[in-house]
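Appendix B. Extra example for self-study. Work through it before the problem class; the solution is given directly after the inputs so you can check yourself.
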Amino acid sequence: MSFTTTLPSSNSKLFKNATPMSKKHKFKPQFGRNENDRKSSGSGPSHSPAKRPMPPPQAHSTPPRKKARLSNGVASAIQEQRRELPIARGREALIREISANEVTVLIGETGSGKTTQVPQYLLEGGLAQAGMIGITQPRKVAATSLAARVSLEQGTPLGGCVGYAVRFDERAGPETRVKYLTDGMLTRELLGDPLLSRYSVIVVDEAHERTLRTDLLLANLKRILRERNGNGKQKGSPLKVVVMSATMDAEKFSRFFNDAKILYVKGRQHPVKIYHTSQNQTDYVDSAMRTFFQIHVDQPPGDVLIFLPGQEDIESLQKSLEMFSRQLPIDFPTVLIVPMFAALQASQQQDVFKPTPKGSRKCILATNIAETSITIPGVRYVIDTGKSKEKRYLAGPTGSGFDTLLTRDITKSSAMQRAGRAGREGPGFCYRLYTEDAFKQMAAAPEPEILRCSLAQAILQLMCVGQDIQELELMDSPDDDAIISALKNLFIIGAIDDKRRLTPLGLVLASFPLEPAHARAVVASKDLGCTSEILDIVSVLASSSKLFLDVSDKRSEIADGRRKLVHPSGDHLTLLNTVRGYSAVGITDASASAQEGAGKAGRNARREWARQHFVNERTLREAANIRDQLRVSCERAGIDWRVSCGDAEEPVLLALSHGLAQNAALITPDGTYKQTAGQQIVKIHPSSTMADKKVPAIIFDELNAALITPDGTYKQTAGQQIVKIHPSSTMADKKVPAIIFDELVYTNQIYARGVSSIQKSFLASLGAFNTRKA
DNA sequence: TGGGGATTT
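Solution. Structure tokens for the complete assembly:
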């Protein structure tokens, strides 16, 4: 072919053993033309062959909103589908085993139907008589869409027999027997009902993901089993627990629950042929590009999904692919390149779900978002770079650690999950840009989140229900260092005292669905008269997605669009300007024409405003929900959320500084910033026998050490970090005496993100003891 | 000069 000089040459093909190439590149549908590919697992693991291709319910199927009076035909078709699921053959055995055992570990492959069927089997088997069946999910969309599917299968309206509960959205009532909920939601329920007495069965789904909340839930379930089922002193009705997981870690879950019975359910995934490279690839972006064209030239139709670590690689690969695609002969199928990552505008994210036009091949460049969170239809080929970005919190000795965000090798379970994305609708192919040896050397599964995140919020929540994270029987316990760091953090904001006891302020902070630092800013805003402003800011900080989205090649356009929002003091008041600018668009519109059509006109105007200012509207809508919830929390805590300081900036920055006390830095002569944490000025608490004594050095209850200063106050001793302001900050390259920041992230150096300029004098008023009047 | 992905009475 003429393009072999510009396209990667056929000699450099990474996958020489891949399916035979046709000399003529006519893209006739030739699914499953190579029978060997269907059966053999190649050099890697494969999925079992499917007898009857039928994908499981998709996360994106639209839920029926109302009681559907189903025709008999539809209803019986649904029941027929249920009976054909792989798990259906094991129905009686499952009911029997789960009834007979206190805890069951259920390993089900993708497509087995376990998540939709097990709760129904238990319901039909009479296990929901003393209480509900609760099924937990790590993600909200999964909980809501599964509930919709199962209520359809039960022929009852959503929120009737089958319901769900996720943050901001609940459809469950007195009749509800089967409830799908996020694991965070159930951990929340624990606070008010420590025995989960409303439930007779708890099914913990996707347990292998080992989210922080799943782990806390599992620990509590073990305790509840003892208390509700324990010999002699039962409280309430007995509880059954079913732990559902993908292939990994079955024995570990079983051991945790005293050698619980393990059951296996076959899946129904189409076969995926897996290829490994014969040599390690140094440049995975280039390898991905060459592999894509190898597929595009040699292989039958079907979309290609490429897993990459992050936005930067996606944008770079997109450019290369576009450049080479233009050089393809005219009779070749068009290449449609679609990027997919969380920080992408919602409208652009929709592009991956649009059907691929005839005569073209879609190539999706995605982060981990396509591994679990979304399912993209039409994918037949997966290219797996074997890399992902992983955030990991490094607890610092001063209670102010930082996050690392580094590209790392994925795990085996992640590699399997990625490969499986090629077999959703038919036999598929996965091209791994790493050797089989490299695969074998990968860790089995990701480290549990509880070992990788800040523990401040979790510890505070546990303290409120009288639990000690070091006493709690967890599957994996965090290091003492991480715990001590979190305790220091809680101490600095006044949530606990120097004896590790919860303070009245700590109890208030825990009542907010926020990180303790953000909750502290809300509480501080009461006396400073700026609660309205702090809620606007904190609700954005607590949102799951970023407010400002940047695509690298539109940088100056974006800067122009946002110019009016930028506040000279930095990122926090810029956020505030943005929230207020956006809200004002809605209010103006709604009051202008309160009659019909106003809602729609307002929505359109807000969307346009967000577009013009290059602001993520999804974040602003989520933030508005969070803000409503925080207003309720404020009312309970006796804080008037309407109180505003108008245009005054000082109270707002001071309130934020109370929460971010350990996230402050001072400028140094060479223009860099040095973190102040570890240099807090502290006063000795009046109740201490050391009060008013002047000694050279003090230690307070393993939480910290401090040295005396010439003015008689004490200064903490622990280390200080040199930090750089992140280039995305409005404060980048600005030199001011003092800053506070939302977080430190180490990528290629330690960056402060979410930065505001503050008066240096603020810091003196933030001593740990000064803040604890509650 | 640079942003994996979830989630909370």
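Self-check: Residues 270-446 of chain A form a domain with the Rossmann fold fold (CATH 3.40.50.300). If your reasoning did not lead you there, revisit section 3.
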